[in-house]
Specification:
Elements: H1 2-14, H2 18-37, E1 48-51, H3 80-90, E2 96-99, H4 111-119, E3 124-129, H5 136-144, E4 149-153, H6 159-165, H7 171-187, E5 194-201, H8 209-219, E6 223-228, E7 251-253, E8 259-261, H9 271-274, E9 275-278, E10 283-285, E11 298-299, H10 305-309, H11 312-323, H12 329-332
Parallel strand pairs: 1-2, 1-9, 2-3, 3-4, 4-5, 5-6
Antiparallel strand pairs: 7-8, 9-10, 10-11
Helix pairs in contact: 3-4, 5-7
Length: 342
């Protein structure tokens, strides 16, 4: 797995260009300069973007707004023509494009076409899936699309454990889909997509972390990410999902017994300077924690990426973040969690 990680890092470097690196440098400088000044300074454009293929999903995971069918915003699927228009406007400075926000990306009929379009423009592409739709034909199309990385959610080493969080899911389909993908990578002699097993640790499955690592190694999966879970109502934890092992939890109890995020949550956020999320219908939201698009920064059907990125809305949001992160609802329960690289 270590060699495949090195080879993939070399592949990522090959997608870079002078304009992309120059833009990333400006973004990095503006982030640290903003922290120093205490007010937002914006230079460059976002070099990491997430696009939402669809809000639809086949599962019913308890902490997922898509799985719970709990959206208050409009639901639907992105138009391929709109997606291509957006990519055309930002591809020269865009390093990373993630085909995921809410929903299951493989439910979008044009997913492979959109991935191919972005890959042909030299953009590093990624998506995340529950792997229930990776039959033989889709597995081959995934490899042929030019997708750089595929993250497969696998939150249990047996069906009973897996289904406690992935409600309605079938672990056998996940494993069969993974096997299909790896077989087609070998058959087509492709180094991509880089295949990741992502294990979201919750109380019912925390005892199976090592088993999933062993499973990944035996199947030829390139890497395992062990990730902590965001619990919406973490003070009460009604679904009893917060792990008992502190190393796998985003939350801890203080001396009084109150449950608090582990993250110190300083008054800044790198994501607000280098990335953004685009919903299926063109809304731009600050990050993936704004699952219901409660903080729209603009609409790409009416404005350009640059206009939104430099807009008054975005500047005020960044300024509020620099003043007090805890006063922003989506930021008060925010932690990137941990990833344990195998």
């Amino acid at each position: 797995m270590q060699w495949t990680s090195v080879r993939h890092a070399i592949y990522l470097f090959s997608t870079l260009s002078i304009p992309k690196l120059w833009n990333a440098g400006k973004v990095l400088f503006s982030f640290y300069y903003s922290r120093f000044r205490g007010r937002p300074v914006i230079m460059g454009l976002p070099f990491a973007v997430s696009v939402e293929p669809t809000t639809a999903c086949n599962l019913g995971c308890p902490e997922c707004i898509s799985g719970l069918r709990a959206f208050t915003r409009q639901t639907g699927s992105i138009q391929s023509s709109f997606f291509k228009k957006v990519v055309d406007s930002i591809h020269e400075t865009l390093i990373y494009l993630n085909f995921y926000f809410q929903g299951e990306p493989y439910l979008h009929k044009d997913l492979f076409d959109m991935i191919r379009y972005a890959a042909d423009k030299g953009i590093y592409t990624s998506t995340s899936t529950n792997a229930h739709f990776l039959d033989d034909a889709r597995a081959r199309k995934t490899v042929e699309s030019g997708l750089s990385r595929l993250i497969i959610s696998i939150d249990g080493a047996d069906q009973e454990t897996y289904s406690q969080y992935r409600v309605g899911g079938d672990l056998n389909k996940v494993l069969a889909g993974t096997a299909n993908l790896i077989r087609w990578k070998k058959s087509l002699r492709s180094h991509t997509p880089f295949v990741v097993f992502q294990f979201l640790v919750v109380r019912p499955n925390e005892h199976q972390v090592d088993k999933v690592r062993q499973m990944a190694a035996s199947m030829g999966v390139d890497e395992v990410w062990v990730k902590t879970a965001q619990v919406i109502d973490y003070t009460n934890d009604p679904n009893r999902l917060i792990p008992l092992e502190q190393q796998y939890s985003r939350y801890k109890k203080d001396k009084s017994g109150q449950v608090l995020p582990v993250n110190a949550m300083p008054d800044y956020c790198w994501k607000m300077w280098h990335s953004q999320v685009i919903t299926w219908n063109g809304l731009v939201v600050p990050c993936c924690f704004d699952k219901d698009a409660q903080h729209p920064m603009g609409n790409l059907n009416e404005q350009s990426v640059t206009e939104i990125w430099e807009s008054k809305n975005y500047k005020e949001f960044r300024q509020d973040l620099l003043k007090s992160r805890k006063n922003i609802d989506i930021c008060s329960n925010c932690s990137e969690g941990i990833k344990v690289w195998q």
